[in-house]
């Protein structure tokens, strides 16, 4: 039997999954990752904890599967993106905690870049909007603020990496300092047309090129793990940022195919093939996972509060005891009774980009109950995602692309049938949930399997992808327009 091991290092946990050669899950292990909030707006992880939890889950998953590393054909790595680690090449020790993607401390540098009129050049080269979300300005912050860092960096003694790169350094005991194109494209330092680090942007932020990892296609041989780690040297055959990995795991290989992941937040990505398109509607362009040297792209939008609104119902309002109870509560009323929840707890992400917006509930009457609020809260996940898909639709028609035919879904909240049906109703296209909703890890396993001969082609992977349930739209278009308008009115109030 042939197995693939996917390491899925997420923001809140490290997970490892063993898959068989049909892409079926064989065993799964997960450990939570401690979060650190040293100042308002700052979020950090301990890089050594990232490594410790990841390697523990890998060992546990192999044990649960009843196999040894010698039976694993290849390892695939997928990871929370943008999170920035800097370590000393000689000692291997991180010089600072990892600065997590949610961390806003680098905003002043971004203001400066925007004021200097660099946003257009940066978007043309990297596909990104200038924002503290991406790694480049976080890396600059570390060099500017950690004592002695700049001197060591100039002397070539420091290494930078996103989490995939840091894990590979650890897995190979310092032999491999590499990343893949999809992770590199989240740094704001990477030219996505040439698939190389951009010398001008590195210079602009004062980052020595010697710190940067080698960049490879997502499906390629990155190296072999040290035998001490899992008891056997296994090849690392695939690496991708978690959202691009999910796009790959959903078998969205062609232009116009879209997936949405409903986790804490929601991440929607549309493959645009080898066409580099910038969005005129508040979305970003990113490198998709690549199996060759040819650049491939996706347009991406993110919703900050997706499934997290259900956590708020549970922990903030005590409206439910477990997340699973939300569906029954929402369905205990025939509609939301005119209530609209805008969960702008930390501002609104794409396509609105309103950092100062705050959570708002509109349409409350004397008859409103907690069930109406719960229903409206669930609906808000679908409204925000619909705004993203509508923005993608506008980008597509501007580029004369074909209309999107279906939305493939995954992530924790995609298990909620009410939410998925309402999503299909709002979008007017089928929402399709696959058999395996662990598509992030599956994507990494696919990438690793492709480069090591376990799989032969993307066509073969498309055939492995199986529908579990298809939600057909079932709401008259006039009613959809009315509901979207109600939502946009509420958003306007949240952003006042
Ligand atoms: N039945 C459900 N209905 C709606 N949301 C849910 C349900 N079960 C879990 N969730 C939400 O899904 C999210 C967890 O999904 P997951 O994919 O594990 O997220 P992440 O990878 O961001 O940690 C949580 O925010 C949780 O509130
Ligand atoms: O780890 P997740 O699933 O929260 O994903 C985080 C994203 O990669 C951030 O860009």
TrEMBL record:
Residues reported in the UniProt entry to bind glycerol: 81-82, 133, 242-243
Binding sites annotated in the UniProt record for ADP: 11, 15, 264, 307, 412, 416
A Pfam family annotated for this UniProt entry: FGGY_C
Family matches, as InterPro entries: ATPase_NBD, Carb_kinase_FGGY, Carb_kinase_FGGY_CS, FGGY_C, FGGY_N, Glycerol_kin
Binding site for sn-glycerol 3-phosphate: 11, 81-82, 133, 242
EC class of the enzyme, as a word: transferase
Molecular function (Gene Ontology), one example: glycerol kinase activity
Cross-referenced CDD domains: FGGY_EcGK_like
Limits of the Carbohydrate kinase FGGY N-terminal domain: 3-249
Pathway stated in the Swiss-Prot or TrEMBL entry: Polyol metabolism; glycerol degradation via glycerol kinase pathway; sn-glycerol 3-phosphate from glycerol: step 1/1
Keyword flag Nucleotide-binding: yes
Record's catalysed reaction(s): glycerol + ATP = sn-glycerol 3-phosphate + ADP + H(+)
A single BP term in Gene Ontology: glycerol catabolic process
Ranges for domain Carbohydrate kinase FGGY C-terminal: 259-450
EC id: 2.7.1.30
Matching SUPFAM superfamilies: Actin-like ATPase domain
Activity regulation details: Inhibited by fructose 1,6-bisphosphate (FBP).
Keyword set includes Isomerase: no
Entry similarity comment: Belongs to the FGGY kinase family.
Function recorded in the entry: Key enzyme in the regulation of glycerol uptake and metabolism. Catalyzes the phosphorylation of glycerol to yield sn-glycerol 3-phosphate.
HAMAP family listed in its UniProt record: Glycerol_kin
Protein name: Glycerol kinase
Gene designation: glpK
């Amino acid at each position: 039997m042939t197995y693939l091991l996917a390491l899925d290092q997420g923001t809140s946990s490290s997970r490892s999954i063993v898959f068989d050669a049909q892409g079926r899950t064989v065993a799964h292990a997960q450990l939570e990752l401690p979060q650190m909030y040293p100042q308002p707006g700052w979020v950090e992880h301990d890089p050594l904890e990232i490594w410790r939890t990841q390697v523990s889950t890998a060992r546990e998953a192999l044990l649960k599967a009843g196999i040894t590393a010698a039976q694993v054909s290849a390892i695939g790595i997928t990871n929370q993106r943008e999170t920035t680690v800097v370590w000393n090449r000689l000692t291997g020790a991180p010089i600072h905690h990892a600065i997590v993607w949610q961390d806003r401390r680098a905003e002043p540098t971004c203001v400066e870049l925007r004021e200097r009129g660099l946003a257009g050049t940066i978007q043309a080269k990297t596909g990104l909007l200038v924002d503290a979300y991406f790694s480049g300005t976080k890396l600059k912050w570390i060099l500017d603020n950690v004592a002695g860092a700049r001197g060591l960096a100039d002397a070539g003694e420091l290494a930078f990496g996103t989490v995939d790169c840091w894990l590979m350094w650890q897995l190979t005991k310092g032999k491999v300092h590499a990343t893949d194109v999809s992770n590199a494209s989240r740094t704001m330092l990477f030219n996505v047309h040439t698939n190389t680090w951009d010398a001008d942007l590195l210079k602009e932020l004062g980052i020595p090129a010697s710190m940067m990892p080698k960049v490879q296609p997502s499906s390629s041989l990155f190296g072999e793990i040290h035998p001490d780690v899992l008891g056997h040297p296994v090849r690392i055959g695939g690496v991708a940022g978690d959202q691009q990995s999910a796009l790959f795991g959903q078998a969205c290989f062609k232009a116009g195919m879209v997936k949405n992941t409903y986790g804490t937040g929601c991440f929607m990505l549309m493959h645009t093939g080898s066409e580099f398109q910038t969005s005129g509607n508040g979305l970003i362009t990113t490198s998709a996972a690549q199996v060759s040297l040819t650049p491939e792209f996706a347009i991406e939008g993110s919703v900050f509060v997706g499934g997290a609104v259900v956590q708020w119902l549970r922990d903030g309002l005590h409206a439910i005891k477990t997340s699973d109870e939300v569906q029954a509560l929402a369905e205990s009323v025939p509609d939301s009774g005119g209530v609209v929840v805008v969960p702008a707890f930390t501002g609104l992400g794409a396509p609105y980009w309103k950092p100062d917006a705050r959570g708002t509930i509109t349409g409350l009457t004397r008859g409103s109950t907690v069930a109406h609020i719960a229903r409206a809260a669930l609906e808000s996940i679908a409204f925000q995602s619909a705004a993203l898909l509508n923005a993608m639709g506008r980008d597509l028609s501007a580029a004369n692309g074909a209309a999107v035919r279906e939305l493939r879904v995954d992530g924790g909240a995609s298990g909620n049938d009410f939410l998925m049906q309402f999503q299909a109703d709002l979008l007017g296209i089928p929402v399709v949930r696959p058999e395996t909703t662990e598509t992030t890890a599956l994507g990494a396993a696919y990438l690793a399997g492709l480069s090591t001969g376990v799989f032969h082609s993307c066509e073969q992977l498309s055939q492995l992808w199986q529908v579990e349930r298809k939600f057909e739209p079932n709401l008259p278009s006039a009613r959809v327009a009315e509901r979207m308008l109600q939502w946009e009115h509420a958003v306007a109030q949240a952003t006042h």
